Amino acid sequence: MHKTMAQLPYHYGVKVRIFPSTEQKRLIKRNSDASRFIYNEMNGLKRELFMLRQVKIPIMLVKQRIQTLEQRLKNPATGISNIHGWLNDPDLDSLMKANAIKNYRYAWKLFRQVHRSGTPVFHKRRSEQKYQTSCQYDSKLPVKNMLNGSVRLLDRKHIRLPKLGMLRFKGMPAKLFVCRENIRIGTTTISMDATGRYYVSMQLASEQPFVTVTNSKESNPVGIDLNTDNFLTDSNGNVVANPRYYRSIQSKLARAQRKLSRRALRAKKEQRPLRDSKNYQKQRAVVAAIHRKVANRRNNFLHLVSTILIKNHDLVVAEELQSKNMLRNHALAMSIADVGWRTLLRMLSYKAALYDRKFITINPRNTTQTCHDCGFVMGTDNTEKLTLSDRKWTCPQCGTQHIRDWNAANNILDKGLEKLATK
């Protein structure tokens, strides 16, 4: 019996750039619009049902409407297609419809579990396009892999997708292409970014690990302190400088955005929709390209740092940072958003599983204020707490001189080892 994607032990994700033809671009847009429409239609029904269930007065009209909505939500795929006949168009991928409904259900499931940011919102029409499909396999196939599903590789530079047919893409990573006969493809996302570049993202799963791990015999744990002055300081005293990618390009972006604003005002004065204004759309693409460049440079930097940390240490300990709360500090919001701490922690988490390493986070309370040598906490015994400007300090109890970030990284590592020992 074949295992499902979830039952396979190893998982991986890959995103490659594709180069569709004009007809394929039209099909991508059609499927993207249909996916957004189905999601919004389902979300509208669910929001109405959610609001009606809050009504405590037993009005017969409300009860009947609740029953009607519940009935429509039982079989949404056929119900929506019957009402909106254009969804039966042969250009549309049936698996796209199933994934749009699955995404809406997952969004409401998260809302019920978390209940923090309100009911799921409607997806707006944007310059970006995106829809999901699934890779299906014939049940009679003895082995399911990247070469025999509805989404499959034809060679290293070509891929076949449902409804779109053969597409040229930039190239599959060598480590994945070599193992293509042992890897299965799951959910596949076709997308276009704001600059008009098209991508395919694939969920992969396998019985064999995607990375060959060489476990060293010696234990080599490390604690890392993340800050804005320098990007990272580890417990060995190594410092990674903060590249500040957004700040380096901020003036160029500001000029481009002012030009975009002027073109928007002119289009509105001439009563032309922005979507049909060629000059506005050209400048919008310029602004989007600058944002993309910043994002790509930052992601490349974070991938390099996270991979080096995970490969060279069997245990990585970091602070559990609440970026959402930290961004409320308007003096530091731009610097905090620029460094991408949450993205780094997410990368460390999944790469630790990929390379068979351990990554844990600890409560950051007093990691900066505590002396690593004697355990004295600044702010107690009539002492003042360290401020952001205090990069070096001397412990008033034992007299040890500390470099602020190195001391914090050592405290983080100690807390991580204690947490690991109590498990």
Automatic annotation (TrEMBL):
What residue stretch is flagged as signal peptide?
none
Q: Please report which protein family the annotation says this sequence is part of.
A: In the N-terminal section; belongs to the transposase 2 family. In the C-terminal section; belongs to the transposase 35 family.
Domain Probable transposase IS891/IS1136/IS1341 per the UniProt entry, residue ranges: 215-329
Q: Where is the Cas12f1-like TNB domain?
A: 341-412
One GO BP annotation is: transposition
Q: Which UniProt keywords apply?
A: DNA recombination, DNA-binding, Metal-binding, Transposition, Zinc
Top-rank taxon, per record? Bacteria
The UniProt record lists the Transposase putative helix-turn-helix domain at 13-42
Q: Name one Pfam family in it.
A: Cas12f1-like_TNB
Coiled-coil ranges per UniProt: none
Q: Looking at the keywords, is Nuclease present?
A: no
- Asked if the keyword Protein biosynthesis belongs to this entry, the reply reads no
A molecular function (GO) term: DNA binding
Designated name of the protein: Transposase
InterPro entries linked = Cas12f1-like_TNB, RNA-guided_DNA_endo/Transpos, Transposase, Transposase_put_HTH
